[in-house]
Amino acid sequence: MIYLTGILSAVASWTVMFKGKEQAWLDVFDFVTTNYMLPIGGLLTCLFVAWVMPDKAKVEEFGSKGPLYQGLIFLLRFVAPIILIAVFLHGIEMLPFMEY
User: Fold this and answer.
1) CB environment 33-72: b (16+ within 10 A), e (fewer)
2) Distance, C-alpha 7 to centroid of its chain
3) Is 50 in contact with 77 (CB distance < 8 Å)?
4) pTM, to two decimals
5) At what angle do helices 55-62 and 67-74 cross, to 10 degrees?
6) Cα separation of 83 and 2, whole Å?
7) Over the Cα atoms of the chain, what is R_g?
8) Per-residue pLDDT averaged across 2-29, rounded?
9) How many CA atoms lie within 13 A of 48 on its CB side?
10) Secondary element (H or E) of residue 92
11) pLDDT digits (tens, 9 = 90+) for 30-89
12) What's the confidence (pLDDT) of residue 18?
């Protein structure tokens, strides 16, 4: 798979039909990575650390269980997922209050 991706990167002048127009392969790959992979990966990481990872492991990594730790957990559980969903929806041009 890496070999095939490398070949596609080497022939960057190849064009493909994407979103109704002809674009270079690297432009399509950049669009997909920026607008789909990064927000979804960030959201999954955020949800895993906030809700699935054991509390003992989080405290061990952070170093303490003080107010800064509690604030971080609050942000990871409630604020960051909303922001990442908004970033994803903006990337796929589906926010209702934005003109695209």
Assistant:
1) eebeeebeebbeebbebbeeeeeeebeeeeeeeeeeeeee
2) 25
3) yes
4) 0.79
5) 120
6) 32
7) 19
8) 81
9) 7
10) none
11) 899 999 999 999 999 999 999 999 999 999 998 989 999 999 999 999 999 999 999 999
12) 83
The H-assigned helical ranges of the chain are 2-10, 25-32, 38-47, 55-62, 67-74, 80-91
pLDDT of residue 26: 82
Res. 28: pLDDT tops 90: no
**Are 86 and 42 a contacting pair, CB within 8 Å?**
no
Q: Which residue has the tokens 């890496």?
A: 2
Amino acid residing at 100:
Y
CB 30 within 8 A of CB 38: no
Do the beta carbons of residue 26 and residue 12 sit within 8 Å?
A: yes
Structure tokens at 78: 């409630």
Type of residue numbered 46: C
- What tokens appear for 36 in the block? 């789909």
Residue with tokens 């926010």: 95
